[in-house]
Design brief:
single chain; 15 strands
């Protein structure tokens, strides 16, 4: 199976793909012809069962408005129970177009203009823009790197949570881009602080399925059981199965009041429209995707180890913060560049690889860059060889 993940299909027109579109690349990197490893999208061909199911739906020839029936929801519920020991009740499930759509809707609906929303930078850059664009204030609980592992400053978190105007926390679990898979103890500490200060927990768990062997994903809704129901979880099959352009996302809350508020918001702004192919995909991947995803995760884990070994042997001045989950790697270039201008020149102009600068992820990102590794390994290694070649000329 691994050999299939090593294949890159050259006969596919990728010109409309966000990751490959030359206008997007030019806007982001100033160069249209650059090897793209930036947006968290996958180059892997999807599981065969999904292709077969989509063909069957296409042959149907009828594509009317569709509903998320119990038959579509149940495989998702079963998946989370079997794979993560996370209980999702059907009555608490909602669906919307994307995780970011759901997060923005929740913050706008359930907090007030000017409220502070706590995030943990360096963190997924959309969090900051979502919060600012709807008139809320970004409150940073900065992560710190200690002995190669990012840690939470709980004293600072407690201080920020205790401030009256900070009404919600947006948790990235697993964390993008630093790759932490939070332990149960860490999540319990976060939960206790938020609950004690009546801070709404919004937990983005879109990367929950990509977990490496030494870590275990713990769903925050499970941590909140017996403690509080002041929580909403956001997820999607998009990252796990390489189908973000096909499926929508889901929202889950055990709190009927929060669920009702979100449901009314979704209806009011028409954010929950389903389509035939998305519904087929959702049902199929959660029913039949166990083995395929295990194989994909094992492939990614080997890629992480290969990158780590390559850097240590060939580019020791660039280091990898080894991820516990997600298919992003967080690379430290601080020993070879002094600022963003130098890092851009190294990566974009000279090595011709498009990866996202760490400063995009907020405080703590200076000198780092995030690389998406959901591509055939030979492509990843070619990108690193380009960096090695450029540094050898310095």
């Amino acid at each position: 199976m691994a050999a299939k993940f090593d294949k890159y299909k050259k006969d596919i027109d990728r010109s409309t793909f966000v990751r490959y579109n030359k206008d997007y690349l030019n806007n982001n990197f100033g160069i249209p012809d650059i090897a793209p490893f930036w947006v968290a999208d996958s180059d892997f061909i999807v599981m065969p069962e999904l292709v077969k199911a989509l063909k069957k739906t296409a042959k149907r020839g009828l594509y009317p408005y569709e509903l998320k029936t119990p038959a579509i929801k149940q495989p998702l519920i079963d998946w989370y129970k079997k794979r993560h020991k996370v209980e999702i009740k059907m009555e608490g499930l909602l669906f919307t177009t994307s995780v970011n759509t759901g997060l923005a809707a929740a913050i706008d609906e359930l907090t007030t203009k000017g409220d502070g929303i706590i995030i943990q930078p360096p963190v997924y850059q959309a969090f900051k823009s979502i919060i600012k664009n709807i008139g809320r204030k970004v409150v940073n609980n900065r992560l710190s790197l200690k002995n190669g592992v990012y840690k939470i400053d709980f004293t600072d978190l407690e201080n920020k949570a205790s401030e009256k105007n900070n009404t919600a926390m947006l948790l990235c679990s697993p964390h993008n881009p630093v790759g932490r898979v939070w332990t149960k103890k860490e999540l319990e500490k976060i939960a206790d602080i938020c609950i004690a200060n009546d801070v709404l927990m919004l937990t983005d768990e879109i990367h929950a399925d990509i977990i490496y062997s030494n870590s275990t994903f713990i769903g925050m809704t499970e941590v909140y059981k017996e403690k509080s129901d002041n929580i909403i979880m956001f997820g999607s099959a998009g990252k796990s199965f390489g189908i973000p352009g096909l499926v929508d996302s889901f929202i889950y809350s055990p709190n009927p009041i929060l669920k009702k508020a979100m449901q009314e918001r979704i209806m009011r702004f028409h954010l929950g429209k389903s389509n035939a192919f998305g519904n087929t995909a959702l049902k199929t991947v959660y029913k039949y995707g166990y083995k395929w995803l295990d194989t994909k995760t094992a492939y990614l884990a080997k890629t992480v180890n290969t990158i780590d070994e390559y850097l240590k042997k060939n580019i020791p001045s660039v280091t990898l913060v080894k991820p516990e989950g997600t298919y992003q790697v967080w690379l430290d270039f601080n020993k070879v560049t002094k600022n963003d201008k130098e890092l851009k020149s190294l990566l974009y102009e000279k090595a011709k690889i498009g990866i996202t600068l760490g400063t995009e992820y907020g405080i703590g990102g200076k000198g780092y860059a995030r690389m998406n590794i959901a591509s055939p390994r030979p492509m990843i290694m070619e990108a690193l060889k380009r960096v090695e070649s450029v540094l050898a000329k310095k």
